[in-house]
Amino acid sequence: MTSEVALIERWRSLLTSYNRVAGQLDRALQDRHGLTLTEFETLDRLVAQDGEKRRMQDLAGDMYLSQSALSRMVDRLEKRGLVLRAVCEADRRGVFVAATEEGVRRHTEARRTYLAVLADHLPSNGPGD
To answer: What is the pTM of this model?
Structure first.
């Protein structure tokens, strides 16, 4: 029984840490760059593709978002000119999304804030971290 209690306590501690850091990231990104944490994470995954488009279904799976939640968020990013959406020619049900030049620029600026918050809130692993 004590091992179950310890396991649950470790899980709750992890959630508390995550929520603290995620809250700081969300506030800093919104205040300085007009992006929510989820919007930044979406751009981050798209920019990591070096300009390649990503299938919405794959992106949703990577981010643990439902298709509809991702679709609404991509709508917001598209209206602001940060991403483009396109239908897959081979499979009309498939939708692709890619970061625009403006999306890459905004991501680059916001990434500095993202990394600064992470550095302030996450412990170092030691030399050469």
So the answer is: 0.86
